[in-house]
Amino acid sequence: xxxxxxxxxxxxxxxxxxxxxxxxxxxxxxxxxxxxxxxxxxxxxxxxxxxxxxxxxxxxxxxxxxxxxxxxxxxxxxxxxxxxxxxxxxxxxxxxxxxxxxxxxxxxxxxxxxxxxxxxxxxxxxxxxxxxxxxxxxxxxxxxxxxxxxxxxxxxxxxxxxxxxxxxxxxxxxxxxxxxxxxxxxxxxxxxxxxxxxxxxxxxxxxxxxxxxxxxxxxxxxxxxxxxxxxxxxxxxxxxxxxxxxxxxxxxxxxxxxxxxxxxxxxxxxxxxxxxxxxxxxxxxxxxxxxxxxxxxxxxxxxxxxxxxxxxxxxxxxxxxxxxxxxxxxxxxxxxxxxxxxxxxxxxxxxxxxxxxxxxxxxxxxxxxxxxxxxxxxxxxxxxxxxxxxxxxxxxxxxxxxxxxxxxxxxxxxxxxxxxxxxxxxx
Length: 427
Ligand code: PMP
Known about the structure:
Layout: H1 3-14, E1 36-40, E2 43-46, E3 51-54, H2 69-79, H3 90-102, E4 108-112, H4 115-130, E5 134-138, H5 156-159, H6 170-175, E6 176-179, H7 184-193, E7 198-203, H8 219-230, E8 233-237, H9 250-254, E9 260-263, E10 274-278, H10 280-283, H11 302-317, H12 320-342, E11 348-352, E12 355-359, H13 368-371, H14 376-388, E13 391-392, E14 401-402, H15 409-426
Parallel strand pairs: 3-13, 5-6, 5-7, 7-8, 8-9
Antiparallel strand pairs: 1-2, 2-3, 4-10, 9-10, 11-12, 12-14
Helix pairs in contact: 2-11, 3-11, 7-8, 12-15, 14-15
This protein binds 4'-deoxy-4'-aminopyridoxal-5'-phosphate (PMP).
Residues 59, 114-116, 119, 142-144, 204, 208-209, 237, 239-240, 264-265, 274 line the site of 4'-deoxy-4'-aminopyridoxal-5'-phosphate.
């Protein structure tokens, strides 16, 4: 038995399913999860002394690779000054100013502790602002584990075949309307059938949580138009795409500006942080400026703010980060396509910037139904074949890979060699 296997066995006695977040259990890919001891740059090191080149990067935030010196220094400096005050600090103001200057839709912002809190709070604010109860979300999009969002949810909920969770009341479910991603006509039909009742439309502007799915041309523009016509708050959930697909998130890249934006993990450089922000007039309904209540003892935590500030300052001062992320993403995905051609495979590879997913289906993947045509058993074998060759992928077909600037051209070549060998082995 490996040390990771021993730890997992023990964990199952004390933690439900042995993990603190479901996808970590490797249930979708078979085998036992790898327990991580440490990470640096492009590498993960496990309890058994194995080294992996890493393509998850803590599900997104490690844009600069693990334990980047700048972030490390900011955190160790901040630790000298106390861990939490529950009172305002200079850094929170500087962080808010920084985020407002970077993200096009954000004029005011509130820090929270996770992506889940960010989306739950944004939804409450949209409801408070409009005085309406209903929300539209898209099948296969994941917005954290808030009750309202666990209807037709992606990510782990989809991986485990439970996109609608027990424990969510019928009342909550009734206020959540769902449409297929990339289907404007379906959204229009929901809006028409629920005139004057819809507070917000929330979506991942590029979806990472059913595997990577891009918005088709005109989809985001169409949503913007519907929201403008109907007085609906448009919320982009950029927890994964913010500061990654462009400095100002995918909204900067596509030019469609939502009314509100939710952010997460990246703005803490990997520390537990989230945030939601948007137009002043909307954000000013939040307490104590307005009547919509939302609070947090650890919100704006000084250590997390220090990490986030170091990370965001570096990203905003170094546009070369984004040039490099594009370059790595293009080289890697082109190489994977060339590998498939070499051995006569035609699987769908969706890619935007430094995020991508190889779907084990030859159908185009533009929504949840398309994603479900993937051969997930085959993905499981591919995952294990890559792991054996020292490449750590997201342990589910329904997730995106995230690249970091710590990857060198040599790493990319190593990943491509492993990809070719693994495909040959499992297909
Ligand atoms: N929104 C999106 C788009 C996400 O991908 C996630 C998690 N990956 C969340 C919200 C929830 O964030 P957290 O896990 O930090 O609660």
